[in-house]
Records
---
Amino acid sequence: MPAAASRPVCVLGLGLIGGSLLRRLADSGISAFGYNRSAATVDAAVADGYAASSDLDVTLRRAAEADATVVLATPFTALEAMVVAVRDTAPDCLLTDVVSVKEEVAELIERVHPNGRYVGGHPMAGTAQSGWAATDPTLFEGAMWMVTTHDDTDADDWLTVARMARAAGAYVVPAANDAHDRAAAAISHNPHLTAAVTATVGAGESDLALRLAAGSFRDGTRVAGTAPELQRAMLEANSIALLNTLSETIDRLIAARNALRDTGSVAVLVDDGHRARAKYEAIAGAEPEPITDVRIGDPDWQQELRRQAHRARVWMA
């Protein structure tokens, strides 16, 4: 583990993602502590041997004293109150987050805490479960973790967040916020909507279809089992990018419907989908190719990281 990954970490929000991160870092020997407003969650975390508190002010004062990296791990709808608290109590701490949208978070932090240090993040990991009971210190093992990489991103701050992601077991994918949000809409947020549609249509007017349902229905609707309030917070925060992918989805389905009606064939959509799935399997099934020949802090390092990430490479240093 890189030495810089040993900087203390303060996690605000101990649900599936935040709690799993706290557990992984603490289990790795990193000084990690967290906050959650639910006393029951805090009690469960403490009972499992982790440092947690339901007192936000006390937690942030500890973060300020330790110069900890503060991880925002609450739903987007609760984020502004967290950023205000950080601004007022631990203004010099480096901020990152695990929220599934980046443009909206960056704009919120710029508005509420304009002098704050912030490098966004988004681990591409999760399950349909939530809460401390669902946390898993291996959740991020081998996962992709986007770390915001803009031309004005500070090299030391970027390295701190990237090394934290690596300490959690993830590969780092450098990306600009807007590019991340477009990608997340296509491969995460849009599937939540299509899963909801598939589940609703499959449920039908009787339980016959559900009794017959097997792997394709189970796998295609898994994320529909996520708590609705968590889904809404994620999807609605990325509404612009999601509208674009949703429009493309609708257009393709309409074209397939029309072709089926007029010619009896859905070949175009099925063939396109099969090719796309094969491309995904080729990338996901191979050992990630590392980003090479980039020294963080050298001229144009951010641009070169982004360029190589668009070729499916990841940062592993």
---
Amino acid sequence: MRHPLVAGNWKMHGTRASVAELIEGLSRQALPAGVEVAVFPSCLHIAQVVRGLDGKRVAVGAQDCAVESAPGALTGEVAASQLQDAGCSLVLVGHSERRLILGDSDADVTRKFAAAQSCGLTPVLCVGETLEQREAEQTLEVVGRQLAEVIDALGIDAFAKAVVAYEPVWAIGTGLTASPEQAQQVHAAIRAQLAGQDAQVAAGVKILYGGSVKAANAAELFGMPDIDGGLVGGASLNADEFGAICRAAGN
């Protein structure tokens, strides 16, 4: 049985002071027992968050990792093994901002996915289409290709210890949200694509929705059969709002 997962991507936000406030706010939240919760702070704040949430039911992840799993001569990058050593248990790979702004290719994303798993981290594979691609009715083609890159390179079994996050690029940080029906259509297609390789793996994979998830729309989104929680952006920077989203997943 799949348990819901609500993950907060803090992106390039936070100072030591504001992160301390957010940790304190998260510590006060009543989080539902059946929901897994994770936060993804900036790399600078991982150690602070790991310490601050010690003993809480909140996992800590990183927003990206290097294509190489081991430390080495790759200035400015952080290896998956270093993230694991710092206390992370998950890592985002292929977020649209990495793909579209920072140039991560499908091959890069696949290497990061593999690097994460080789160090015991759970990769959260982000997939999604731009507004132009949606308007051209290419959503399922684009998402299917992004998913297939990893399946073809690493095999379907790699998804037995991974999470997928569908994030329509046009809904990230814009206030726009895919309707529950639009999101469900893509989530169902992702699960069907995985099931075409291994039905058991597909049934167990958590598929999260990301794209302006808020407390006001979370319950309706999470009520869809193939939506297993959310990858939350801006709303995760407010502890009360994030707590409300987690409770919506518990219902």
---
Amino acid sequence: MKPTISKRLIFDHFANKTSPLQRTAIENWLADVANEELYYQWLEEWERNHLQYDAQSEVALEHFFSIIEQEEAVESIEQSSFRAQLAQWTRNHAGKIAAVIAVTLGLTWYNWDTINYISYQTGYGEIETFKLSDGSKVKLNANSILKLSRWNFGEIERKVYLKGDASFDVEHLKNHQKFIVNTPENFTVEVLGTEFTMSARKFGSKVVLTNGKVKLHYVEAADEKELIMKPGDVVKLKKDRPMEMTRTEAPEAYSEWENKRFVFDETTLEEMAYQLHETYGLDVTFSSQTIANRQLMGSFKGRTIDEFLQSIAEVLDLSVSRENNKVLFTDH
């Protein structure tokens, strides 16, 4: 008889109390992705009710020492010797102890992060669209990742974490709940319901507003600042440089990567190299710094990355060669 999958059975599974037949049934049940959310929800509930025992090692050690001290058969010099040996052993193995603690904490963080967050990710050269549980749509550029809470997203708050490039079409909720995009690049975008494109990359970040209104929170010279953006505003953020804001009549042009098209606005070839590394995994070099400092303007598209590279070379009257992921631009 096939076991019925219930919360009680899953809890027994977490406690290692299930039979081989039950474990097989659970594995088959988990093969259906529709059951994953419920499984993680039960796992979080079980872990909250079964916290790991935190051994009070220092208290136990002191208790151990007190027992030794009470033993009349043990001479005080032997006690001191034992303490000295134990202290020496601890010093000698401090590195191993620290490593074990670090690994344990790392695994705990990894498991907790996996349980609590849903991740949407694209590889090099991939562009994908995802629909979030609140109805919002997100299109991710190549080599980008978006994380959000697995639990109650859109009920209590709407916070997402972006690394890379994304275009957002945010659903406006009846309770006017804000939609907040956090990045690792020291800026946050706060919206109510709008369309915008943003990039959060190490070489430089950008926010372009198409419709609606957003509030940009950023850090400049160690000071926290805010900026209300209007449709057509383009904000550029680079490390150790002041914020730059310009206007555009065609904000949709800044999401041309959705059509695998690059748009450059006084972009140096060195900055272009960063973009190609981030989105295609290419290592682009130049035969001279003069070439690296040359600037690009306009929109470029190629059916393949090689066709795109050749277009850049022709526009700037350069030669380009590629071997696997290595690209070199040189003068003729």
---
Amino acid sequence: MRSIAVYSLKGGVGKTSIAVNLAWAAAALSSRKTLLWDLDGQAASSFLLGAEAAGSEEAQAVFSRDVAPSKLVRPTATPRLDLLPADASLRGLDRFFFTLARKKRLEKLLGRLARDYDRIVLDCPPGLAETSEQVLRAAHIVIVPVIPSPLSRRALDEVVDYLDRHSIRRGAILPVYNMADRRRSMHLAALEANPSWPVIPMASAVEAMAARREPLGAFAPRSPASLALNGLWTAIERRLARMPKDG
């Protein structure tokens, strides 16, 4: 099993749309048994994959081991893709982790899920606190969406500097330009400054995901954004294939 986190210090950078579409690509294009684990209390990934808010709030109980993760997992409309949904209880997850004082709880839970899945995609809450540190210790690859703007790039630099100073990074950090519009001079200059970074273009099809509650591959497979996300997944798979088996 390999875990891929989609994380950003900032909100509003398209983190959830990337997480959902990468999970779809893992299941549909790579035929991997895949789990999308929604760790964000806003539950946007859960909504996009058709999960309605449940009456009970049990998502945080997974971390206290009061509920087994497998008890909350739901199938999705995409074959080989399951969802571990979020709910409002996750809004207190940072405080719970701080009280727990166990830095590898998420990593151990991922190890338990490894028996059932080839790939686990983590949709992470924004910010840099206890939950994000758990994720960054556990994930094999961390995808960081970056809007082509100075503020978004500054947020990325802050995260990388923090991880290096505290030595808590496990996997590779992969920045990805998201919602890029080459008609804007600022965006174009940012893309030209980092030509090796993957680029996901601004697209109305991505906005339509919320209305259709489906990944792009299910309703707009030939759209530029869908093709770019599929290409990003291919690059991720290649990087994962180069990792040692015990890495």
